[in-house]
Design a protein that fits this description.
The complex is a heterodimer of chains A (about 525) and B (about 575). By secondary structure, chain A is of the alpha+beta class. Chain A has helices spanning about 95-105, 105-115, 120-140, 150-155, 380-385, 490-500, 505-520, and strands at about 20, 35-40, 40-45, 170-175, 180-185, 190-195, 200, 210-215, 220-225, 230-235, 250-255, 260-265, 275, 280-285, 290-295, 305-310, 315-320, 325-330, 335-340, 345-350, 355-360, 365-370, 390-395, 400, 405, 410-415, 420-425, 430-440, 440-450, 460-465, 470-475, 480-490. Chain A has seven helices and 32 strands. Chain A is globular. Chain B has a two-stranded antiparallel sheet with strand order 1-2. Chain B has helices spanning about 5-10, 15-45, 55-65, 65-90, 100-110, 110-135, 155-175, 190-210, 210-235, 250-275, 295, 305-320, 320-325, 340-365, 385-390, 420-445, 445-450, 455-465, 465-485, 490-510, 525-550, 560-570; strands at about 145, 150-155. The chains are: A alpha+beta (about 525), B mainly alpha (about 575). Chain B: Belongs to the NDC1 family. Chain B: It is found in: Nucleus membrane; Nucleus, Nuclear pore complex. Chain B: It is a multi-pass membrane protein.
Chain lengths: ~525, ~575
Amino acid sequence: MIGNTAQTLIQISTTPIKKMRNLQDFEVPNDGEISVCEINGRMQSMNLEYANVNAFTTSVEKHPKIHITRDLLHPVSSGDEGRALFLPVDVPFLKQLTQVYYEQGFYEALHIGVSSEHIVVSKGSRLLLNLLNYVRKVQVIFNPNIRYSSTSLINNLSQTKNWQENTIRCIAWHPYYTKVAVATCDDSVRVYSSETNFTPLLRCKQQKNVTCIAWRPMSNTEVAVAHETGIIVWNIDPNSLVARPSISNTIILHRIEHKAVMSIVWSPKGDLLVSAAACDNTLLVWDVEMDRTSFLKRPGGNGNVLIKWSPNGEKLLSCTNGVVFRVWDCRNWECERWTVLSGRVQSGCWADNGNSLLFATNNDPVIYSVIVKSDLIFAKDVENASNKAAAIFDVAKVDIDGVMVGGLVQSMESDPKGRQLAVIYQETNCVTVFNVVRQAGLQLIPSSLVVGLPEERPSSVSFQQNFESGSCLTIGWSSGRVQYYPIIYTDLNHTQDNCQLSGNNSTFLNPIMHSTKVSRFL
Amino acid sequence: MNSNADVFIAKPAFTYKDLLLRKLYYSVLCSVFSQLVLLLVYLLITKFDLFHPITWIKSTLVTFVSLTTWLYLVPLIVIIFAQSVICAKDYAFKSTYCSTRFQKLIAVFSIHNFVLLILHVVVGGLLVWMFLSLSGGPYQSITTTCNKNGACVVEGKFLLILNGLFIGLYFFLKVYLTEKRIFFPVIHQGKLRQFKASMFPLIKECLVSAVAPSLYFMLFYFIWGSQLLNGFKKFFNLQPPQTNEGNSVYLYAWLFGALYYFSMNLMRFFFNLFLTEPVEFPLVKQNDDSLTLQASINMNNFPIIQSLACLDLKILSQWFPERRQVFFTLSQPGGHPHNWNGLVENILKLYAEYTELLNKSTDTIQPEKSAPQSSMMSPASCLSPMQSNRYRNFRNMSMTYGNDLVDIVDISHQNLPGVNLPETIFHVIQEKIINFFNLLKVVLGINFMFGELPQANIQKCLANGHLIIQTSEGLSELICRSIIEDRFGIVQKDLPVVITSLVELKQSLERLNKIPALTRKMVGYDDFNYKMKGAVTAAVKRSLFNICKHFEKYLHEFPLSKEVVLQLQPFVAKN
């Protein structure tokens, strides 16, 4: 069990890392072709005009076809559409003041107050305005994040590439069913299912600037949507045919100081929801129904960017917007503290059934791995567990046959079984897929390179949670197209059947699977 | 029995008295001790001197350890001690539910409350008096020597002490009487962490909530202040105050109000902190008095122990494989799963009582709803002979008694007209009289006072909702883990009964949706009940989902009634 000893990670980024793998090992699909799937370790590509994944596998045949074009988006209401229709008229000052207060808030009303003819009102407003400005300045000293406007702040810190512009902001698969929720830039969430063509649209006034979606485990109806000022937990009855569920089906969670919610995650049993906000250094643990919270607070950083629960449910990764990231032990809620040399952790994910952590920073194109000490299964892990992260893959930008690949990492996702890792980059437009193998620590082995249609950039990636024949990578492209990229092992299915027969004890069988794959790739 | 179980036998046994006393002892001790710390911090702030730090600290410490301070402090500590000991009873023991307004009224005017009221008010005055006296400055004493012989009253101190008394009264009526519920934190961190995390929000909350009573007091003092002051002067034969007080005294009034709130809330916080700290219950009985987890789950008389046992069940099911193993072992000699049987019997009893209470309260509200429910509520047929034998002492919740038999033969007399005339008149008169009495009851407020309050039972049910949440989550997790960990298949024999009880509970909870007061969010009013209804329902559904998900392939092999299988459909459906 982890104690609360603080550990410090010192990355020696200046020393050359010997023989680190790099992106040159990837193969680019032929010119005019795009990659559609990977079968038995071999990437399959097709001409982009006739590309059809069903030619290779039937595993995603029934998956919902998602392409959110600009026509499908709802106009985002700013609340003052009606104003353009009316000519401005002179209204009494008091009326104007109340109108501005009602429509634009207290701060704007003060600005109007300053321009008043009454000396008392204008002086008073100016005084209040100055006071508010001083308060704001003091707040900025303590928390520099609030200097930015919230949308640009989210844009900078989000896992989604080009969050502000791209149509698709977030993709989340249901843990047990072939059901996917897609958040789009019009502040709405659409739920697609393989069983029905009916797609409920989750949208309400409070839901502005969606950042993250999470399906609740142990439930088939509930989905939590993180937006700028809070979280909305929707309850969608799968048997209902209401196209736009009303707000009465929601639980609205909101705390005034917990703003720009960036990331949310449910506990594996679905009883707790943890949220991280960019301008609040406290992680909130919610009892959703009772609307009560517990705080997880430690010094360091002034906001949180990313949280991820380990697949075995024992650990929680939280990344601050500073150099610190933490691994929480969910039994006693103590944490291990880790630091990076500079910048912050841009993205991270769990691998190897929650025993290791993969992460990348925002100023260094390298993927690191950390072995998290826990109730160790294998004795050799004790030796491997160290206080330092190992740099395991160099993802510096390279040119492979005229295609630019790599650079600083935007987002990383691992598949639920921990065998694949998908990475998207801040500056280049390819998605790289790695195999994760356990051999002398963790190793990443280049697997396939997914290139979109011309002018398409990946905005968000996600893995299907219940894909039985391997892994199904889901990529949301900037065009609004959602691509399924199945990674299938025909012999693995066989192994998996055996695994289920022996009583769901997949934890112990995982190493065997890894070793078969290692022999395949090495 | 395997060695794991032996480890847990070796654990020291404790009785519920030990456990309760230990927790309450620490809470009371911390409450008293916190008063000393509060005083020290107060002295540090009032004697603050930036340019002479050593003098500052020295003078603070000298004041703190001086005899005068302790002379002030001892009565305060004694009172605080008495107060916390009396409050402890409120937190730790069973609270009574009042079904009529009259009972509520009687409960409010009890001797216990009266003593607490006095203590709250006295602490309010004493706290302000002590703090003002020790900090020096113009309000050190309530009298000053005037130019002439005789003493003048210091109005500021008089006002502040009065304010302290008022705040004490206000806090007791507004906060203490209404909010006695203990909330378990969402996650259990160390006590020091909880303390650190809660202090800042607590201070903030106290500053805000002290504003209203301070304003009320100022209004009160503005109207009656001079009369009170005159009375005080006359009684002690004092001179009128020499100087007028500035506005700063109002600021002090607010700050001392906040201080009082903080000190009282701190006491509540400590009770909450120590009482909700998880306890590891022994799973095997060691002597006659010792507690076991299984028995504690049904300990209705000590709600706090019951809650802790349910919490422990949830924690052990998630985190402690060795402790889980105790439930999956057979006794030696005999080979009986006593540990598991005890657990499941107690939990099912808890569910049965809960479901019964829920059904009773929902039935009384909608008596006209006599749609044929028999098919809906009869999942009992699923019990195998062995199980029904084991639970033969339980009233079977799923059976509908009597309803089907009522209208088998419907005999009605058709009396001749004219013959029954006197009877009709009699009936009419009787009806009139009854109506008159009913009207009288309404007009005189008898119904209002003595009539049973609607939903008193439901409130009682929902107040205990966290027990159901934790046991259902714990039990379902235990059952799911049994797939791998239970070598003897102990759990499987009881699985149909557990599922059936959970389904019944779910159905009863869903019937709560028909109660108007619980169907929509009402601002302020009944908010707790509305939320708790959602929380319990969601937890029971999650537990069923968890079980269905893990036993998906084998569900059809369990002897479940059609109705239960139908109810489980949403959890095994593919979309």
